[in-house]
């Protein structure tokens, strides 16, 4: 399953909103440096879909606010 994510790094409040089928808008407190925001977003995607953290893998958008994740086991 593929999930499209619109990401906001460095936000004051962490949130996960479902904005469509297989689309999420995620805000995280971590800054967009040293891959910290991407790691936290991957954890939130995995938690949202109820899979292990290693099952959520960032496919595309490592340096972009528009990301594509692959979810295994769902």
Description:
There is one protein chain. The protein has one domain (2-71): YggU-like (Conserved Hypothetical Protein Mth637, Chain: A, 2-Layer Sandwich), CATH 3.30.1200. The chain has one helix and five strands, in the order βββαββ. It has one helix at 36-49, and strands at residues 2-8, 15-20, 23-27, 56-60, 66-71. Strands 2-3-1-5-4 form a five-stranded mixed sheet, covered by helices on one side. The mean pLDDT is 95.
Outline of this structure?
The protein has 74 residues and is α+β, with helices and mostly antiparallel strands. The chain contains one helix and five strands, in the order E-E-E-H-E-E.
Set out the fold topology:
Blueprint: E1 2-8, E2 15-20, E3 23-27, H1 36-49, E4 56-60, E5 66-71
Parallel strand pairs: 1-3
Antiparallel strand pairs: 1-5, 2-3, 4-5
């Amino acid at each position: 399953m593929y999930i499209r994510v619109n990401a906001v790094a460095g936000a004051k409040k962490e949130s996960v909103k479902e904005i469509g089928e297989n689309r999420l808008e995620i805000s995280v407190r971590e800054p967009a440096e040293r891959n910290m925001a991407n790691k936290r977003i991957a954890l939130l995607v995995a938690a949202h879909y109820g899979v292990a953290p290693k099952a959520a893998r960032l496919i595309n958008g490592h340096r972009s606010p528009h990301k594509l994740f692959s979810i295994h086991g769902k």
